[in-house]
Structures are given as structure tokens and as C-alpha cells.
Task: inverse folding
């Protein structure tokens, strides 16, 4: 938050100042070892791509998704909707929203 307002140097100085008070000293020490690098990776240009790239290998995919289709994911989403609706009596009476 401080890097967005005043830059990385101010963010590092503020984190150092708050260490041991509002911030855990062990965590601030890790941050202060490489503040520029950590700030850079904490704000990627494409958040979705960064999350997908961070997923450990082998990556799990729905069978249809691996073939470039969204049908597998949509099937799981619909099943989740039915489970959520069934777990709430009023919602179960209305049926799934989708």
C-alpha cells in the first residue's frame, strides 16, 4: 500500500518503522532483505497469469479444459451450485439459481 502512494523506498522505511509494533519482526526482516523484488512480484501486470504460473506442477485440469473447452469447469460449477442450494432449505425449495 505504501509503495503505491510514495514508492518502494517509503514502503521499506515504513515497514522497518512498524517492525515489532504492528508488524511481526521476523516477517519484516524477510521483506527488508529484498523489498524491491518482493514489491515487484506482489503487483504483476497480469494477476491471473501470475497465479496460474505459481501453481505447482503437474497442474490439475478438468478433462474438457485440457482440450481447450470450458465444459468440464462448467459442469463442476453447476454441481457446486446444486450442493450449495441443497444445503440451504429455502434455496433447495427454489432449486439451483443457474
Result:
Amino acid at each position: 500500500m505504501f509503495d503505491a502512494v510514495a514508492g518502494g523506498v517509503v514502503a521499506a522505511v515504513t515497514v522497518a518503522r512498524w517492525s515489532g509494533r504492528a508488524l511481526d519482526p521476523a516477517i519484516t526482516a524477510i521483506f527488508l532483505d529484498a523489498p524491491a523484488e518482493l514489491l515487484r512480484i506482489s503487483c504483476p501486470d497480469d494477476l491471473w497469469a501470475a497465479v496460474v504460473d505459481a501453481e505447482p506442477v503437474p497442474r490439475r485440469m478438468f478433462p474438457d479444459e485440457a482440450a481447450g473447452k470450458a465444459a468440464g469447469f462448467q459442469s463442476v460449477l453447476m454441481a457446486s451450485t446444486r450442493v450449495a442450494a441443497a444445503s440451504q432449505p429455502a434455496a433447495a425449495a427454489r432449486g439451483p439459481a443457474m
User: Anything to note?
Assistant: The two ends are 38 Å apart (CA to CA). The chain has two domains: 2-54, 63-94.
